[in-house]
Amino acid sequence: MLLRHDGIQQKAAGFKRDMKPIIFHVEAAGQFRPVELTFATELEVRRVRAWRKMTPATDAAEFAALAAKRWFYYTREGATVACLDDLRAAIKRNERAELAFLLVASAEWVKRYKFLALAYCRRTWCHHLVLDFLAVRPGLTFANQPISGMGSGILFTLSGLADELGMEMIWGEATASSARFYEKVLEIRPVKDLFIIQRHAMRDIAQRYFARQQRRLAKVGEKEQIP
Q: pTM for this one?
């Protein structure tokens, strides 16, 4: 097993140090495996933008292209950050600064793909976190099996980040195809075209995420013990 209880609890402490990288876990081929989430560089932004060339066209590929386009716009305006320390420093310089960043997920055990998912976010002038785009790479598999927990792991990470920064709210747009995902992960019904996570709910989300991970880990362990 690659997921340890102490490893889960150490994630929150990671926010205080930096964000290169933050580790969360997904389920793939019957095991829990680590995924690294980091702030994207220009080269990495260009690589995820290339998802738009995949066929057939998908929402995820379109979101990746739009996220890259917005990232480059904010970069030209001098309003992107490359790490958590940069984000804190920019806020300290200007409390009303609107800042953007793109997070990319990668894993050494997935040799076939460089990046597995992305999240394009903005810190608003009133210190809220906006999730503009959350996308998992189209056709993502490992050992010919789907990888489970990528989107929820990123959403949990963002909740921890927002809580650590003292943000009162996370909000984002839900599409017709993503609304059910947010309903399931956030346990909010119904989710229409907008979802909101208040600060008091951020830690509840983390606790539910931990509990689900532990239950799934237990099930995997039970299967391995069956002769």
A: 0.85
